[in-house]
Specification:
binds nicotinamide-adenine-dinucleotide; Rossmann fold; about 45% helix; about 15% strand; seven-stranded parallel sheet; single chain; alpha/beta; about 260 residues
Length: about 260
């Protein structure tokens, strides 16, 4: 078991890659707090885990609420007694527009993609220190590695996460707390449909969503979308002790798109 005796958190664990990760980590022996704003789906993830003999609980709330983003860490520590890992995976696709941008949109992009991640991280570090170390993983994107005319706000936030992870990796490495980033390419989840069909993205307006998704997927050397489980595999590796000498890394899982 690759995550035996590990206790931790997966945010956005009700759907897509987060769900795939929560289920996989539990199958590898971890106890998982499944965090999501969608309570019914978070509970469904937990049911899948427990039906297979794993350990998990669901916590529902909005990670843009600072108290909730901090509180998930304390609740997990209370329920499990320990905290070994945090996959701060939740994110927001953000609007596409630049001209005419209401800076409230900027705040929303930064709130879920960065501020909430920071809030959970702040609370997690002392508990990991208590444990003699831990592993933190953020979800950026290929949009955090190169620019895109369609997602400047998203890119700001996702690049920011990489800067944060690299800085924390240096600061907390001496305490055996590793901080890494996974950068998914185009992945077949509900968020992808939101991303390609944002109402303010004029380049895609009126086009068929399935076709837009197909075109995005074919833009990598492997010529297809990622499956959520393929991102979860990378997350499993980075969070587990198998990656014990990896910190401050931003790993593209993108079918070669950024090669
Ligand atoms: N799908 C892609 O192509 C892709 C590519 C690169 C990066 N990402 C990143 O992956 C992460 C998740 O995306 P996904 O594709 O797995 O999405 P998804 O749509 O499958 O799941 C997102 C989950 O986040 C939850 N959520 C949304 N807002 C929330 C909030 N305020 N508080 C708590 N939970 C909230 C939703 O309820 C949902 O369950 C994001 O950080 C996203 O930026 C996605």
């Amino acid at each position: 078991m690759r995550m035996a005796n590990k206790f931790g958190i997966v945010t956005a664990g009700a759907s897509g890659m987060g769900r795939a990760g929560a289920v996989r980590f539990a199958a590898e022996g971890a106890a998982v707090a499944v965090i999501d704003i969608d309570e019914a789906k978070a509970r469904e993830t937990v049911r899948t885990i427990t039906a297979a003999g794993g350990q998990a609980f669901a916590l529902a709330g909005d990670l843009m609420d600072e108290d909730f983003a901090r509180g998930i860490v304390h609740e997990t520590k209370k329920r499990f007694g320990h905290l070994d890992f945090l996959w701060a995976h939740a994110g927001h696709p953000s609007v596409s527009r630049v001209e005419g941008l209401d800076l409230k949109e900027f705040d929303i992009a930064m709130n879920l993609n960065v501020r909430a991640v920071m809030a959970s991280t702040i609370e997690a570090i002392p508990f990991m220190r208590e444990r003699g170390g831990g592993s933190i993983l953020y979800t950026s994107s290929t949009s955090g590695l190169f620019g895109s005319p369609f997602s400047p706000l998203y890119s700001v936030a996702k690049w920011g996460l990489i800067g944060l992870a690299r800085s924390l990796a240096k600061r907390y490495g001496p305490e055996n707390i590793r901080v890494n980033v996974v950068c998914p390419g185009t992945t077949d989840t509900p968020m992808l449909r939101v991303l390609v069909s944002r109402p303010d993205e004029t380049a895609t307006k009126g086009k068929d969503i399935d076709e837009l998704i197909r075109v995005r997927g074919s833009g990598s050397p492997l010529g297809r979308l990622a499956r959520p489980e393929e991102i979860a595999n990378a997350a499993l590796f980075l969070l587990s002790d198998e990656a014990s000498f990896i910190t401050g890394a931003a790993l593209p899982v993108d079918g070669g798109k950024t090669a």
